[in-house]
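dude i think i finally got it to work??
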Amino acid sequence: MTPVLRTEHLEFVPYRPEDEDAFVTLLRDEQVCHWMGQDLAPEPEVRTLFGLLQTDVYPKDMFDVWGLWLDGTYVGHAEVKKTGNVDGYELITALAPDFWGRGLGTEVVRGLLRHAADNLGLKEAYGMVGAENTASLAMCRRMGFRHLRDVVAEDGSVTKMLVISTEAPA
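look at this
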């Protein structure tokens, strides 16, 4: 079961039905989609995705996924899950643009790393960051992520595959 997590400023809360509009707004933001390396999905698809969290992901304990809250305001999304991108668990984060540049990304990743180590028993975790996302790449370097390889998509875009020890000082 996905636990509630707390960091210095943030609360990681499993999504509740009443969080649907906030989730949809975040994942329909063009800037967020761009930096996540995703196409802007139609709203009905994003709503279906949210519904799957409630009907499949949480009941079947498929992976951990949270809404991120700062003083009662929804600021983003976070996941720790196995993906086809890496041989292990990937950390996935997305912050609303109004909250970029405040150090919250680092706080989210630290919280996810602590959860990965303490609750999942992981020794390392992976991240996938677009090569153009210089702010996120700089944050990852400061935190101790190591570059494993570049992944080149069919359209020529490059994503950096990174790894970090969950025991590394973040």
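The domain at 5-122 is CATH 3.40.630.30 (Aminopeptidase).
im so relieved honestly
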